[in-house]
Write a structure and sequence with these properties.
The protein has 23 helices and 23 strands. It is of the alpha/beta class. Strands 15, 16, 17, 18, 19, 20, 21, 22 and 23 form a nine-stranded mixed β-sheet that branches. Strand 6 and strand 7 form a beta hairpin. The radius of gyration is 44 Å and the shape is elongated.
């Protein structure tokens, strides 16, 4: 409200306009019909040395310039300077300039008013005024708030109806018929599409033009001397200015005027008129979108910000972060659209729509937190120690899910257990045991949850978890493998800390299996737990224990291995055996996940192991034992198979099918 009352929005909108205008100025096309002649420092020095002209120059110099562009058949010649005093060289000097102007018939002199409302201005002396084809107004239309020139009027507001210098140029050339059709700015006049640098119009030094005119005059007076102008490096043929709109302006230090524009705070004053004419010649106009459209944009931005905020799920911090990021993107996208449309000639309001969108979004977010957010945060705070954060979020979003029942989903079941924990616990007090478990379980749980897993339950030192529910995860197998190996690394880091209490190595075994399972709320009507059931779950539990038979600590099924690889797993999987768990007749191929570095480092061991395993499957237990023995000292699975081969040799199976059958869970 303060910004609105103080006009702050208007100022900010103009600054937004300036930013777009400056951005677009480098892309503005320049017309090849506009020529600039500048009285620069080099011209002043040359005039003093060659002609003895001090400043101000005699009007004879401007007469020569006029004659040159008359020869060129230029469309117009506008002098962006006011000859308001009689020449220091006498009235005849003024008459020479006036005659050249009359002969050409397309010279524009200028008038300057203190402001657009003034009724009296500074005009050129009468003889020059009368000889001019038109008088052009050079009074700027600077905005009152910051004195920046963004627009220029076609005609003065005073009663004399004098056209702007650019329009006067068109008028004397007879090309001003369509000026009335130019889109008018809200505050009058036309928006100027600025060019970033006037040098893009290829300006000429006044010295160059005067030298060329003097060479032409010498050539005409000495026709018999056969003077070659084409070979003279100082000569510029007038023909190249044919049909050009020429502007003459001061550009020497201390002489030329500067203005504040969107492009620069020290933009040459003549650039205002040059850029205005350039826009007209190119028909490259800027126009405000209709007021009604602006109102609709602002209303839609407010409604959009409110709707986006209302879609934020208060129970999920990531939702607020994502929607806030989206809100920022929307603001930038709208601003980007405003920049793009500016290049196409349309001026969109930026500040009010962005402000309205942002204010509506923040207000609605604040309201959400005061109302619905209070209850949801209470539920989350009260139950976060009992339930998974994912389950709490689902309960908040869908309270109807608080009922018994389950659904079939593809998940990866995760079982872990500490090796020899019974013997560890026997030597610890209840307090020490509790503290030890809390440290271990906290570290492992954090990792499992970081990878998106749901911890189902703790059974003493054992962790039962699963991936892929309650939130669907296509890459649940990859997440489970990543979490399992991350837990093993973390346990290795914690080893020294844990052994200080346990007095024994603290090692965990992990079993993973992927497949269909029933997940949901299981239990009684008064008390239930979100858990998993089915053969997929049972197999994962068995694989955790089967690690003992291979001397490994992480084991997964073929289903887990394949799914993890399909979803971009960075780990390698060492095949171990085809094993049938207790209670099952069919075998399951099991693997030992590891880093690719570990996998590559044991290439010779794996080669020997694979050869020995083929012999084992073929029933050649004696040969297999000898082959396994070659790497038994370096490889735990090989050592375990040496014992298995010996057992098979001592207890030959009746019907050997190559499947290793587990004898214990």
């Amino acid at each position: 409200m303060v910004l609105l009352a103080s006009g702050g929005f208007s100022v900010l909108e103009k600054k937004s306009y300036d930013s777009r205008a400056k951005y677009a100025s480098g892309k503005t096309n320049v017309s090849d019909r506009i020529a600039l002649v500048l009285l620069d420092k080099e011209s002043l020095t040359w005039a003093q040395e060659v002609h003895g002209w001090s400043w101000p120059w005699p009007r004879e110099a401007y007469a020569k310039l006029t004659k040159y562009f008359n020869r060129a058949n230029a469309s117009s010649l506008a002098f962006d300077m006011i000859y308001s005093e009689t020449s220091l060289y006498g009235k005849e000097d003024d008459k020479s300039f006036a005659k050249a102007s009359s002969d050409f018939g397309k010279v524009i002199q200028t008038v300057y008013y203190e402001n657009q409302e003034s009724t009296s201005g500074t005009y050129p002396i009468e003889v020059l005024r009368n000889s001019a084809a038109a008088i052009g107004n050079v009074t700027s239309s600077a905005d009152k708030e910051d004195r920046v020139i963004r627009r220029n009027l076609f005609y003065t507001k005073a009663g004399s109806r004098e056209p702007a210098l650019s329009v006067a140029s068109l008028k004397v050339a007879g090309e001003d018929a369509d000026v009335s059709e130019i889109p008018e700015a809200k505050e009058g006049g036309m928006y100027i599409r600025f060019v970033d640098a006037l040098e893009r119009f290829v300006p000429y030094s006044a010295m160059t033009i005067l030298q060329s005119e003097e060479l032409l005059e010498t050539s005409e007076s000495q026709a018999s001397a056969n003077i070659s102008l084409a070979s003279n490096p100082d000569f510029v043929p007038p023909e190249q200015f044919e049909n050009n709109f020429v502007f003459f302006a001061l550009y020497a230090p201390g002489l030329f005027d500067v203005c504040a524009t969107p492009v620069s705070s020290t933009y040459p004053g003549v650039g205002i008129h040059v850029c205005q004419l350039n826009s007209i010649l190119n028909q490259d106009y800027l126009k405000d979108i209709p007021a009604g459209t602006s109102v609709i944009l602002i209303l839609f931005s407010i409604i959009g910000g409110f709707i986006l905020a209302k879609s934020v799920r208060q129970e999920k911090n990531s939702s607020l972060a994502v929607k806030t990021f989206l809100a920022i993107l929307i603001c930038f996208a709208y601003a980007g659209a405003a920049y793009a449309l500016f290049n196409e000639g349309f001026i969109l309001p930026v500040i009010l729509p962005v402000f309205g969108f942002t204010a509506a979004y923040l207000t609605a977010i604040f309201e959400n937190y005061l109302n619905e957010g209070h209850q949801k945060r209470f539920i989350k705070s009260a139950f976060k120690h009992y339930l998974s954060a994912d389950v709490i979020e689902q309960l908040i979003a869908n309270p109807d899910s608080l009922h018994l029942g389950g659904e079939e989903k593809e998940i990866t079941a995760y079982f872990s257990d500490v090796q020899g924990f019974t013997s560890i616990s026997e030597n610890l007090s209840p307090t020490e045991l509790t503290e030890l478990l809390n440290v271990y379980l906290s570290a492992m749980t954090d990792i499992i949850q970081d990878y998106g897993g749901y911890v189902d339950k703790y059974e003493g030192d054992a962790i039962v978890a699963f991936f892929g529910a309650p939130v669907d995860q296509k890459d649940n197998a990859k997440r489970a493998v990543d979490a399992a190996l991350a837990c093993q690394r973390k346990l290795e880091e914690m080893q020294e800390e844990l052994v200080k209490v346990s007095k024994k190595p603290f090692i965990q075994r992990i079993g993973l299996n992927t497949g269909k399972a029933i997940v949901g709320n299981m239990g009684s009507k008064s008390r239930f737990n979100y858990t998993m059931m089915g053969d997929t779950v049972n197999l994962a539990s068995r694989l955790e224990g089967i690690n003992k038979q291979f001397g490994t600590f992480t084991m997964c099924s073929e289903a887990t291995m394949k799914s993890a690889i399909e979803n971009g797993s960075e780990y390698a999987f060492r095949p171990l055996a085809n094993i049938a768990v207790v209670g099952k007749k069919t075998g399951v191929q099991v693997f030992n996940p590891m880093t690719k570095k570990e996998f590559d480092s044991m290439a010779e061991i794996r080669k020997n192991y694979d050869e020995a395993y083929k012999e084992f499957v073929a029933g050649d237990f004696k040969t297999a034992k000898e082959t396994f023995a070659a790497t038994a000292e370096k490889d735990a699975p090989s050592a375990k198979f040496v014992d298995k081969c010996q057992h098979m040799m001592e207890n030959p199976p009746e019907h050997w099918d190559g499947i290793l059958r587990a004898t214990e869970k």
